[in-house]
Amino acid sequence: MKLQVKLALYNAISKALIIGAFGAIVPVIIQGIVYNHIDKRLSARLEKMMRMVQLGGLNEISLDQDCSFDSYNVFKEEYVSISPLGGLPKDFGNRSIENTERLIENEIVKHRVLSQAFLYDNQLYEIEIGEGLSTIDQLNVTIRQFTIRILLAVILISIFLDLGFARILLLPFNRIVNKKLKDVQHPSTFDATPVKTSTYEFAQLDRSINEMMLKIKETFQIEREFITNVSHELLTPISILQNRIENIINEPGVSNEVLSRLVDSQKTLSRLTRIVKALLYISKIENDQYNKSEEVSIRELCEEVIEELAERIEEKSIKINTSFESDFVYKPCNRSLIHTMVFNVVSNAIKYTKSDGEISLDGKMSGEAYQLTISDTGVGIPSEHIPFIFDRFKRFRPEDGMSYGLGLPIVKSIASFHKIGLHVESQPESGTDFQLLFPASVS
Amino acid sequence: MNVLIVEDERQLSHEIEIFLTKQGYHCDVAFTGKSASEKVFVNSYDFVLMDIGLPDYNGFQLLKEAKEAGREAAFIVLTARGSIDDKITGLDLGADDYLAKPFSLLELQARMQAILRRKHGLKNNTIQIHDFIMDIQNRSVFFEKNVINLTKKEFDILHYMALHKNRVITRVQLTEHIWGDVLEEDYESNYIDVHIKNLRKKLAAFANSDFIETVRGIGYRLNMP
Fold it and tell me: Which of A177, A328, A413, A429 is positioned for an S-S bond with A370, CB 3.0–4.6 A?
């Protein structure tokens, strides 16, 4: 959830809670105050009635035949009733007050009623004085409805206002995230211009990111120079040796024995060259020195690689099966790197497949990625070795001979440079499955 | 043919000089950018082999100046810096070719010959190898009217051996030539022997292919009168 939405929601909920609480409490308080007033009024009236009874006797009030008296005003808002009581109530002499519903002239009316029992002329009577509650209830309902409307309106307005405000407030933050983190493809293209903001925290975030990125940029630059220097310092002496050996091999009169040792030296030197070049290659990939602006059809690439390796495949009488459910154009990428990656995997498969074995290349869409599986019927890899096959200079087989253990590390660095997934499954003595997962949508 | 070798590493320029002199080139050497600059503008060369990483001078600058001054020489850029941009910059500035150190002297010579062929038009576009004719432009080999169906690598091997006829070429030199910059594991194997075997078989179907001689323990030689 976006921060902006979260802030707006938080604000809306907190306002709703406050207004809701207000809306719940206010009617209760109003009711309390109103009851208090009614009660006082009822008490005063009761006093008055009692005084009337004391002074003028009940005769003063014309009683019905059953010696009871009822008086309502027109709107049944107030009434007085005196009625004889059968027995002595327990709480004789106390006044009681309660809300009751009375059926008056076929209409149920809610009243707050004050009642008291009294003795008159040796006869027990009960006097009740009531006041209608309908007005007050109406008032409460009105207040509640009003509160709910206000509540809804305030929440809606506040959500919109908060969304807008949070948006404006977070504008610099979004700019920092986009400009300083998301859009930065490479440290060397990083732009350290500060993002304009009046928010202290954002300014600090921007500063920290700038410092960090500039440090990374510097490290990248230093590494780049280091690679250049190492290349020069290592490859120049190798170059001298290589050319000198070539020249000596062509000197007339060199004995065959010396000649064959020179050829051996040439091989050794060539191996050294390849190791240095492979290490530099990996470093350059990791140092982001290759651009990724090309595209490549995986199917065509596989066919190309198979053709290049045709002699090796033929030599071992290996059967090649290819099946491409669909073709896939991978972009953006560096074509030559992707070529090297697939080449190394396939050449590795050939190397470890026995004569008359089989190698299959399978391409298909698998969810969000294009899955290229290169499987062989080779010697396989023991499961305990699998986690280490991409490590530099790991060689698990003595029969690897002159291999220097950098073929798969190159594959790995190219894959991670392109964010291509790598997955290996192997069954010793029956074969290895190499999966390359090319992300279908690269932003 | 006059060649100027611009290389601050004296041992290296010495080896290149020995090799090219034996091949019949007349060599001049410059160890600094300053002296190279003087020599390029004073003398007339067919080739300038130029190390980019000179201590006193940016090799690209020198290349640019020489090209702008309309010097006729073909420039081959040599570099050990291993930067990808170097190659592009060099070729953009008008260099005729680019070689990354370490390179084989045979490779250097092959590149020089290729430049010569390009510069002097299509005159020398076929090579007669005994009964066979190699068409370099169209990358095909004929016996009389018959095209011999060679793979790309077989053609490259035969061409390389023909360029360096009567000279032993080691397996390493052949491997480096046909696999070039491919960095892969399975390198020290007998694939060259397999290629040669197939090549001989294909040629032998038409005429004698004994001119490809195996020099035991060392490599191969293409013998030509």
Answer: A328
Residue B217 and residue B168 in one domain: yes
Task: Give the whole-angstrom CA distance, residue B158 versus residue B146.
Answer: 17
Residues 6+ apart with CB under 8 A from A133: A99, A110, A111, A112
- Residue pLDDT, tens place only, A179-198: 888 887 777 778 888 888 88
Domain that holds residue B76: 2-119
Residues 6+ apart with CB under 8 A from A68: A81, A82, A83, A84
| Beta partners for residue A84, in sequence order | A125
Of the candidates A239, A266, A402, which has its C-beta nearest B12's C-beta? Answer: A239
Residue A341, amino acid = M
> Is any Cβ of chain A less than 8 angstroms from the Cβ of B81?
yes
- B110 and B17 belong to one structural domain: yes
Question: What percent of chain A shows pLDDT beyond 70?
Answer: 93
Q: Helices marked H in A177-286 — which ranges?
A: 200-249, 256-286
Nearest to A25 by CA among A146, A155, A144: A144
d(CA B15, CA B10): 9
Q: What is the pLDDT of residues B97-123, one digit of tens each?
A: 999 889 999 999 999 988 988 887 656
Maximum mean pLDDT: which of A75-89, A367-381, B188-202: A367-381
Nearest-CA distance from A369 to chain B in Å?
27
| Cβ neighbour number for residue A237 with a 10 Å cutoff | 15
State the number of CA atoms in the 13 A half-sphere of B186 facing the CB: 18
Let me know whether B7 and B63 are in one domain. Answer: yes
